[in-house]
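Hi everyone, sorry if this is the wrong subforum. Our group has a chain we'd like a structural model of before ordering constructs, and none of us has done structure prediction before. Sequence below.
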Amino acid sequence: MLRKLRIGIAAFLFIAVTLLFLDFTGLAHRYLSWAASLQFLPAVLALNVAVVALLVVVTFLLGRVYCSVICPLGIMQDIIAWFGRRGKKKRNKYAYSGEKRWLRYGVLVVFLAAILAGFTSLASLIAPYSSYGRIAGNLLAPVYRYGNNVLAYLAERVDSYAFYETEVWIKSTPVFMVAVVTFIVIAILAWRGGRTYCNTICPVGTVLGMLSRYSLFCIRIDSSKCNRCGLCSRRCKSACINGDNHTVDDSRCVMCMDCIETCRHGAISLGRRSFGKNIGKNAVGTDSTRRAFLATASMLTVSTVVDAQKKKVDGGLAVIEDKKVPERATRIVPPGAWSIRHFAQHCTACQLCVSACPNGVLRPSSSLSDFMQPEMSYEHGYCRPECTRCAEVCPTDAIKPITREEKSSTRIGHAVWIKKNCLPVSDGVSCGNCARHCPTGAIMMVPMDANDEESLKIPVLNEERCIGCGACENLCPSRPYSAIYVEGNERHSQY
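Answer:
Right subforum, don't worry. Here is the predicted structure as tokens:
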């Protein structure tokens, strides 16, 4: 019963987190954004005391149940391990192995040092939630969108617009390759050894493992009932059950309950720990499974209704050359970050904001100094002043909550005009696209020749009114480089 309950809650939370990275309509983020806030490392970086305290209390009560119920990377490993155990010969293929403390705590020290030194983007390479976010956002999301486009194509054939086509593109090749390598490594480890990654590399697993040594409830083995068949050890994906001396390494046990279901003699149970001289070992006691979980999560039914959105299209027949990214002296971070420094210190590069951005503005950075952390670029769209999606979904407070009014007056950058690229100058034709679409009125068109009111007009920028939304850069018809582009501000300000 406990195992089925654990699987049910884990499946719901796994689907909820995954949908946050897959959904492009905003529906999932509206109802399920809380699932990302439950992740341990984002909660710590966001100084979310309530969530951190909750997870610590749950760990002191039930051990590392977080790793098998809440963590999406842990659940993904369980799914891969399940497929790896298919067949009678592979069903019980694991074996007990001793704890590799030097590796676990060595990785933890390096991870904490990177965080304290401000290299959060490098630390996020092994952070569990961030790793899964990159896998879901770069590998699963394109497949999901291609499937949606197929449905949109079929629906259009029968005059239905229940689905609409969405653009599919790789936002960062280096980050895509990191996601591929991460998935391959974790998949191989999970296929061969179950929870190897969790119990040797994952820093969150190591921290929670230290706490779980003193949990109130733990897996207990009754030596009077055990016949040392070793079935529990061969079934344990954490390799933490020593059947010879009837002990369980609580620092590696993820409370999956597989051993309880596997034992044919009822020798294994979830019971209350006996705190004494042998505090690190499990003692014999009565079955206390009815008191193991204090509460259960209620299952929500989420309707999958897709809202129709307007898609910006050219409408012409001419082939439009793709824009190239300008060389910015200062990168652009979203409104709500308030400064590049604050953003770099708190962002775990989980890619949730990248997946949630409805305008294709956010994409992972390829620079080594802020590798994989999101930045803004306007080749595929611009940052609409009324949109606050990235701030709504960020679980680490790297992008703090911001109202639409605050965003529309927050200067995240400023526009720069390149005279030689401007169509009135280069081609001698009238334009004014940038001024027409500027939402703050920061651009005015003035005659190129001050002495001739009938001459072609060129843009003049009011930097004080510019918020750096990128509408001018995105909608500028000049190719391959826009005649006007946005430079980022180190610190954001209000006008």
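For your construct planning: Confidence is low (pLDDT under 50) at residues 277-317. The first helix runs from residue 2 to 22.
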